Amino acid sequence: MATYEAIGYFGGDFVVEGAGNILFVGSRVMLDPGWDASTDARKFTLSDNDNTLNGDTCNDEVGDDSDQSATVEDAQGNAIASGQAYSEAYFTFSAPDGTVVYANVIEIGGTIDGVVTSEPIQPGGDLQRL
Fold it and tell me: Strand runs (DSSP E) across 1-130, as ranges?
């Protein structure tokens, strides 16, 4: 079984333009300018028998892939959550330099544990939802 590690973010680390919390196509979002990896990052260790991060379309709040699990730690290495994990939501963004950033909202047991992105996000950097 393959294991993947990613540095992620807490959902509350993002600021949505207009102080909302819904990301419509065209919405702008940024990582809080005060975000600091040494204190705010989340470490996701995902294990899976394939290279696809499945969601929970067929098995709501459980996940569609029983072989997909994760452990989540805070920046100090303290455990936050572990168990069968899945992508609750998926977003695509454009960074100021044109880079496309993919973001998955990771959930374990019905609880959102954070966001994992395909590229590191710079604090204060502007992203636009595609």
Answer: 2-9, 14-16, 28-31, 42-48, 69-73, 79-94, 100-108, 111-117, 126-129
Distances in Å between the alpha carbon of 87 and those of 35, 82, 96, 98, 120? 23, 14, 25, 25, 18
Residue 61 token pair: 């709040």
pLDDT, mean of residues 96-115: 93
d(CA 40, CA 50): 29
Q: Tell me, what's the pLDDT at 45?
A: 97
User: Would the pTM of this model clear 0.85, i.e. be above it?
Assistant: yes
The amino acid occupying position 94 is: S
Backbone φ, ψ for residue 47 (5° rounding): -120, 140
SS3 17: helix
For CA atoms 62, 68, 72, 77, the dihedral sign is positive
